[in-house]
Design goal:
Chain lengths: ~260, ~100
């Protein structure tokens, strides 16, 4: 178990660094790494990922709220729906077959990779939005569902809603999204904790690794070109997506 | 003090406190001390409850300045999270029973 703990710490450290550099939660990398490379079952991997996300999003919230960038009004309003979604999905995740979870994960990863590479013009989207309030509530609820079911932060849905639908500036939207992610992921993590999917030693390695990695990553991010990181991440997500879908069909490419 | 800054301070203090507690109790648990393992699990539980404590703190601050527009969603979020805790109470009860022993 000691080797697994050390490996998990290293993986969490690297993912924490990449996530901080790109402003993402890191769950979309953490879960496939644990399932495909370290042979964890997907529900334990999701639980570990959620704890790591709580750690990184809290660390980010500390910095952003110190600069008064978090919009608590919009954040708390949207969080009602996100928390609701997270509670429903994390409670039903225990009942869902592992293969379906892997398939859903593969699809979400493929979509994330596509989103990273191809972005629609913000103005074009902004003009086409009609019922803003309802759309923001639905998107928050869906983000909550993703958090509880797949152990991903859900920032991929929350940030666009805050920018395009509610009209917040980019920095405020990212800060508010981190505040929201900390609450949603902690709610889902609590459910996985209560259902006994956690190994405290693995969780500790993930929390500490991602926390230290995020601190280093945010410093290094200034020196690296985000475009290179984004393309690299998109390729990695696409590979993980294919491997996850193959894994749900019972195909394993290594021992 | 501005709300964002005081919230940041609270979260930072709680986070470092529980991280230190997790690390210390993890060492005790790995040495085979049973109480250490129970406290280790309790520390992890407390760590995951930091955002809820933060939300309650924000709700109190908003109540003091009578900002009901933000207060109402904060209270609803707190209640929903508490309902989830009650839904999964059996495991947490078991943990505290271990502590009582």
């Amino acid at each position: 178990m000691a080797i697994e703990i050390i490996l998990l710490f290293i993986v969490a450290f690297c993912i924490g660094g990449i996530s901080a550099a790109l402003g993402i939660g890191g769950g979309s990398l953490m879960v496939p790494f644990l399932v495909l490379l370290l042979n964890f079952d997907i529900k334990s991997a999701i639980a570990i990922s959620l704890f790591a996300i709580v750690s990184t999003s809290l660390a980010a919230t500390i910095i952003y709220s110190k600069k008064d960038l978090v919009n608590f009004k919009y954040g708390s309003l949207l969080e009602i729906f996100a928390v609701g979604g997270a509670i429903i999905s994390s409670n039903i995740a225990a009942l869902i077959d592992e293969r379906y979870l892997k398939a859903a994960f593969g699809i979400v990863l493929a979509y994330s990779a596509y989103r990273l590479l191809k972005r629609r013009k913000a103005k074009q989207l902004k003009d086409s939005i009609k019922n803003r309030t309802l759309l923001s509530f639905i998107a928050s609820f869906m983000a909550g569902i993703i958090v509880g079911l797949l152990g991903i932060g859900g920032g991929v849905l929350k940030v666009p809603v805050l920018i395009l639908v509610l009209g917040l500036p980019v920095k405020t939207a990212i800060a508010t999204s981190e505040f929201m992610i900390s609450i949603t992921s902690s709610t889902a993590a609590l459910t996985y904790y209560a259902k006994g999917y956690i190994n405290p030693y693995f969780i500790t390695a993930a929390i500490l690794g991602s926390f230290i990695g995020a601190s280093v990553g945010s410093t290094l991010a200034v020196k690296t070109k985000p475009a290179i990181l984004k393309v690299g991440l998109a390729i990695l997500l696409a590979i993980f997506s294919i491997l996850m879908l193959l894994s749900c069909l019972g195909v394993k490419l290594w021992l | 003090m501005a709300l964002g800054k005081s919230y940041s301070k609270l979260i930072r203090v709680l986070m470092y406190m529980f991280l230190l507690s997790i690390f210390t109790t993890a060492i005790l648990a790995s040495l085979g001390i049973k109480v250490g393992y129970t406290f280790f699990r309790v520390s992890l539980l407390m760590f995951v409850l930091i955002p809820l404590i933060g939300v309650l703190y924000l709700a109190i601050r908003k109540l003091l300045v009578k900002d009901f527009e933000t207060l109402v969603p904060l209270i609803i979020v707190s209640l929903v999270i508490l309902a989830n805790i009650l839904l999964n109470i059996s495991y947490i009860q078991e943990l505290f029973q271990c502590l009582a022993k």
